[in-house]
Amino acid sequence: MDNIIFLGIESSCDDTAAAIVRGDGHILSSVVSSQTALHAEFGGVVPEIAARAHAERLDIAVEQALAEAGIGLRDLSGVAVTAGPGLIGGVMAGVMAAKGIAAGAGLPLVGVNHLAGHALTPRLTDGVDYPYLMLLVSGGHCQFLLVDSPEDFTRLGGTIDDAPGEAFDKLAKLLALPQPGGPSVEAEAQQGDPDRFSLPRPLLDRPGFDMSFSGLKTAALRLRDQLIAEQGGLRETDRRDLCAAFQLAVAEVLAEKSRRALAANPVPVLAVAGGVAANRTIRAALERVAHDADAKFLAPPLRLCTDNGAMIAWAGIERFRLGHHDGMDLAARPRWPL
Ligand code: KG4
Ligand code: ZN
Asked: 315 C-alpha to center of ligand 2: Å?
């Protein structure tokens, strides 16, 4: 089973991705074609544009992934594809491409939940054993998952409104910083004073693992408008200090909820995935939490934290090893809780 080879296809948001992964966790190739430029002028991902771009680019991404891995379709053991959740047009484009390849080459087809792909990444990168705790923090997702097997995820809690990445993006928009907002807010925050403004720490006063980030954005908006009213505009230092306060608030909320999640579920590993895991202040805060709980902190390399085909190929391999695969009736699902 270590030398089985899977093609993984991902097209649930704005990245068209294909990768070739071996059963021992070796990534032979990973192609990601980003659509960021296509959606830039609209200030967000436009589903119809995304679906068309996936349909145009998927075959090329698969061809490139095979070429970079130096293999052909005949060398594959199976095809894994994101079957949801996500923007349905894009998911359908991926599922149809995967069905075509599987039927044409006579290969098993394995449908994968996109969130399972993220959640199983620490097994691909570090060979982590079950069970472990996963904090998934991206532009679209925010949840704690207790991972017990390739198909056994317990959602402990998550955001009740915005995902943290979404909140970073909205703050950047408020402050006229470039998108995606996470990296630009982090860069500003680096030179800012996190203690000048005090922002709320939503839901920390309540038990449990749920989080909320939309109130932080509203509080930042109020501070911005107050500064503009008082000074006639925003100074560079205002922007920096607001970003620093915001980043610290997000980091402290994520850290405190992680501390509680680890205390209630004392597993040996706390892992993170998703674009927000790139933030150094957030990473450092989570690392301290893991250290204090005698757990190991794992953050996969960024290219495997954000959307990619390798995590889908790997999740497909794990399902396939359990003897599971799908038929031509595999459906694309816009919503699919783990
Ligand atoms: O996982 P991802 O690439 O895409 C999905 O949302 O599926 O995550 C993108 C999100 C964006 O909202 C972006 O602003 C955020 O991750 N992000 C960051 C940082 N880098 C990316 N947020 C905070 N700090 C960063 N350094
Ligand atoms: Zn994702």
From this structure: 13
